[in-house]
C-alpha cells in the first residue's frame, strides 16, 4: 500500500472508530428520545387532521369515513431514558410499528415534536438523519434482511463498511460481535446455512457492530419458533445486563413485553392507553381493554411484595427471613412455604413490613387493594 493510501485508510479508520466509541463519552442525563403529541396520519390532506379538534376527536372508523384518512399514531407522548428497555406493545394495527419507524423518520411524522438527545429530529437534514440511522440508532427487523451472497462476518460488518472502516478492522469487530451473540465459529457461513434463530442473531450482531446509542427492535422474534424465541429473549436480556444499552422493543406478545420491559407503552388504535412498569400495568390496569390484556398473566410472577406487605408488629419485625421490597410474590411464596413463617421486607436496613401466606395469596387471587380498589375488592370477596 502506498504511503498516501495508507494515510487515507488510517484516517477513515480513525473516523469510524470515533463513531464506534462516541457512546462511551456520552454524559447526557436527559431523555434519549423525547416524543410529544406525535401524529402519523395516512390519507388525503393528512396534515389537517391533528390541528382540527373535531377530526382529532373522531374514532378511527369515523375519521376514515369522514376524511378518508387513517391516524396510525395519534397524539402520542413519552420519554425513553438512557439505559432502559422501553417496550411498545399492542395488537396488529395498533400503530406500534409505525411509531418506531417515526422515531428515525423512516416514516415521516405528520405532526408533533421528536427529539433525540435534545436534538430536533423533525428538522434534521439528510446528512444528519443519515448519521442518526447509521451511527446512533440501529434497527433490528422481523425480516432479517441479510445479504445471501455474503458471509456472516461480512453481513455483520456491512454497516461498518458503509462507514468507511478498513476491511481488516471491520472484520475484527464483526468477529467480536459474532462471538457476543453466540455464533462463534460460524463467521464464514452464508445466511442460507443458518437456522432462523441464528439468522436473527446475525441481524442483532450487525446492529451492535456500529455501537449505537439505541437499539430499535421491530417485532424481531415473532416469526421464530417458541423455544428459539425464548432463547433470543434471553440473549437480549443478557446483552442489556452486560452493556446497559438503551433499547426500544416493539411486540404484540404480552409475555415478551413483561419479560423484557422496564416500562411498557400499551397501544390501541394509534394511542397509548397505558404507560408504566410491568408491575403497574398488571396490578393497576387503566381500563377494561388493559384489564382484558393482562387477565391471564400470573400476577405472582410480575408483582413485588411491596404491594403485598402489611405492617409488622414488634415480634414480627425481629423474626422471619429478610427479603427486599422488589422480591417477586412468587419467590416470597416459595420462601414462606419452605420456612413456615412470615418474611420481613427490609429496605435500607429498616423493616418496611411483613408478608405471610394470607397477604401473598391475596395478590395471587387479584384481591389486593391496588388491583381492584376498595369497592372492587369487596365485590370480589363477596363473589368468592
From TrEMBL:
Please list where the region (Disordered) is annotated.
1-27
Residue spans of biased composition, Low complexity class: 1-11
Gene3D superfamilies recorded? P-loop containing nucleotide triphosphate hydrolases (3.40.50.300)
Q: Where is the ABC transporter domain?
A: 58-294
**Highest taxon of the source?**
Bacteria
The signal peptide annotation in the UniProt record is none
Pfam families (UniProt xref): ABC_tran
Molecular function as annotated in GO = ATP binding
Q: Which SUPFAM superfamilies match?
A: P-loop containing nucleoside triphosphate hydrolases (SSF52540)
Similarity field: Belongs to the ABC transporter superfamily.
Q: What is this protein called?
A: Glycine betaine/L-proline ABC transporter ATP-binding protein
Species name for this entry? Streptomyces spirodelae
Amino acid at each position: 500500500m502506498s504511503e498516501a493510501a495508507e494515510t487515507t485508510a488510517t484516517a477513515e479508520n480513525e473516523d469510524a472508530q470515533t463513531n464506534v466509541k462516541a457512546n462511551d463519552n456520552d454524559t447526557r442525563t436527559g431523555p434519549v428520545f423525547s416524543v410529544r403529541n406525535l401524529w402519523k396520519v395516512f390519507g388525503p390532506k393528512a396534515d389537517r387532521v391533528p390541528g382540527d379538534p373535531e377530526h382529532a376527536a373522531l374514532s378511527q372508523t369515523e375519521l376514515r369515513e369522514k376524511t378518508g384518512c387513517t391516524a396510525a399514531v395519534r397524539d402520542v407522548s413519552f420519554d425513553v431514558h438512557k439505559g432502559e428497555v422501553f417496550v411498545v406493545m399492542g395488537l396488529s394495527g395498533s400503530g406500534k410499528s409505525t411509531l418506531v419507524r417515526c422515531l428515525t423518520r423512516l416514516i415521516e411524522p405528520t405532526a408533533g415534536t421528536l427529539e433525540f438527545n435534545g436534538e430536533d429530529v423533525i428538522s434534521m437534514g439528510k446528512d444528519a438523519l443519515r448519521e442518526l440511522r447509521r451511527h446512533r440508532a440501529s434497527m433490528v427487523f422481523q425480516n432479517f434482511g441479510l445479504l445471501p451472497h455474503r458471509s456472516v462476518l461480512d453481513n455483520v460488518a456491512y454497516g461498518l463498511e458503509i462507514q468507511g472502516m478498513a476491511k481488516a478492522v471491520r472484520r475484527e469487530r464483526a468477529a467480536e460481535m459474532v462471538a457476543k451473540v453466540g455464533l462463534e465459529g460460524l463467521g464464514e457461513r452464508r445466511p442460507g446455512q443458518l437456522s432462523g434463530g441464528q439468522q436473527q442473531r446475525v441481524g442483532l450482531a450487525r446492529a451492535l457492530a456500529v455501537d449505537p446509542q439505541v437499539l430499535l427492535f421491530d417485532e424481531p422474534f415473532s416469526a421464530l419458533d417458541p423455544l428459539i424465541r425464548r432463547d433470543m429473549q434471553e440473549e437480549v436480556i443478557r446483552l442489556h445486563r452486560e452493556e446497559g444499552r438503551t433499547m426500544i422493543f416493539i411486540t404484540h406478545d404480552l409475555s415478551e413485553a413483561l419479560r423484557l420491559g422496564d416500562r411498557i407503552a400499551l397501544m390501541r388504535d394509534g394511542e397509548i392507553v397505558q404507560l408504566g412498569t410491568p408491575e403497574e400495568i398488571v396490578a393497576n390496569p387503566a381500563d377494561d381493554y388493559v384489564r382484558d390484556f393482562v387477565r391471564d398473566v400470573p400476577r405472582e410472577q410480575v408483582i413485588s411484595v411491596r404491594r403485598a406487605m402489611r405492617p409488622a408488629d414488634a415480634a414480627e419485625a425481629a423474626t422471619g427471613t429478610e427479603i427486599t421490597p422488589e422480591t417477586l410474590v412468587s419467590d416470597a411464596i416459595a420462601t414462606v412455604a419452605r420456612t413456615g413463617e412470615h418474611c420481613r421486607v427490609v429496605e435500607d436496613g429498616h423493616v418496611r413490613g411483613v408478608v405471610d401466606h394470607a397477604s401473598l395469596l391475596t395478590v395471587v387471587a387479584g384481591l389486593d387493594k391496588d388491583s381492584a380498589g376498595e369497592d372492587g375488592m369487596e365485590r370480589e370477596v363477596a363473589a368468592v
